[in-house]
C-alpha cells in the first residue's frame, strides 16, 4: 500500500490540521506541495480532485477526501484503533461535532480570518474580525476552565480542528495573553506525541 498523499500548503491552518492528524496517528504522508501563490489550486488538474480549489486534500490509495474536518473524521475512523480521537457513543460524537462546527464557523471567521488579513492581505475589516476572534476565545477560555481538552477528557479531532488558527492568532493581531486556559490547552496539544508545528510568519504581534 502506498503512503497517503497530502496536498498541502504549509501556511494554511486548514492544511496543518490534516498534517497534524496524520502525524498524531503515526502516519507518514507523501507531501504534495500546492503553491497557492502561483494558483496551483486553480489548475484543471487540481480542480479535478477538489472542485472548490482548496487545500488540504488527501488521496488514500484512490480514496479522495477534501475539506480539513472531513479529513479528520476519515483518518480517525479509518486509522485510530483506540477510538478516542472520534468517540463512537452518541453524546461523545455530538460533542466533537459541535466543536468541529465552531472550528468551521467562529474560529474560521475570527482568528483564521484575522490572520488572512495580515499574512495574505485579505480585504476583511480588521476591527470586526479581531472582535469576532476575541468573542470566540472568551467562550473557549470559559469552556476550558477545569477541562484539559475541548470535547472529552482526552484529545479528540475537535482539538486538532481548533488548534492551528488559535495557536497562530497573534499573527492576526489577536493576543492570547488574556486567555490562560487557552494557552495551557495549546501547550497540552503541543506536548502530544507526534505533534508537528505549523510554520510561523513575522506578521502580527510579537510573541
UniProtKB/TrEMBL annotation:
The keyword Transmembrane does not apply. InterPro entries: Glutathione-S-Trfase_C-like, Glutathione-S-Trfase_C_sf, Glutathione_S-Trfase, Glutathione_S-Trfase_N, GST_C, Thioredoxin-like_sf. Residues 2-83 form the GST N-terminal domain. One of its GO terms (molecular function) is glutathione transferase activity. GO terms for biological process: glutathione metabolic process. The keyword Transferase applies. Keywords: Transferase. PROSITE patterns: GST_CTER, GST_NTER. Residues 89-207 form the GST C-terminal domain. Homodimer. This is Glutathione S-transferase. It comes from Pseudomonas abietaniphila.
Amino acid at each position: 500500500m502506498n503512503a497517503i498523499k497530502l496536498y498541502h500548503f504549509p501556511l494554511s491552518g486548514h492544511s496543518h490540521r490534516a498534517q497534524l492528524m496524520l502525524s498524531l496517528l503515526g502516519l507518514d504522508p507523501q507531501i504534495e506541495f500546492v503553491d497557492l501563490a502561483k494558483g496551483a489550486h486553480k489548475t484543471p488538474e487540481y480542480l479535478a480532485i477538489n472542485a472548490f480549489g482548496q487545500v488540504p486534500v488527501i488521496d488514500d490509495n484512490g480514496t479522495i477526501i477534501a475539506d480539513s474536518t472531513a479529513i479528520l473524521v476519515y483518518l480517525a475512523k479509518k486509522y485510530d484503533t483506540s477510538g478516542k480521537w472520534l468517540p463512537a457513543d452518541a453524546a461523545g460524537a455530538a460533542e466533537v461535532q459541535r466543536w468541529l462546527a465552531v472550528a468551521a464557523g467562529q474560529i474560521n471567521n475570527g482568528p483564521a480570518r484575522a490572520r488572512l488579513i495580515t499574512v495574505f492581505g485579505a480585504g476583511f475589516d480588521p476591527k470586526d474580525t479581531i472582535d469576532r476572534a476575541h468573542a470566540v476565545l472568551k467562550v473557549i477560555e470559559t469552556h476550558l476552565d477545569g477541562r484539559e481538552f475541548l470535547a472529552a477528557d482526552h484529545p479528540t479531532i475537535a482539538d486538532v480542528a481548533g488548534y492551528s488558527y488559535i495557536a497562530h492568532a497573534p499573527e492576526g493581531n489577536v493576543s492570547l495573553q488574556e486567555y490562560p486556559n487557552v494557552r495551557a490547552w495549546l501547550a497540552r496539544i503541543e506536548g502530544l506525541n507526534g505533534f508537528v508545528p505549523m510554520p510561523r510568519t513575522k506578521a502580527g504581534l510579537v510573541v
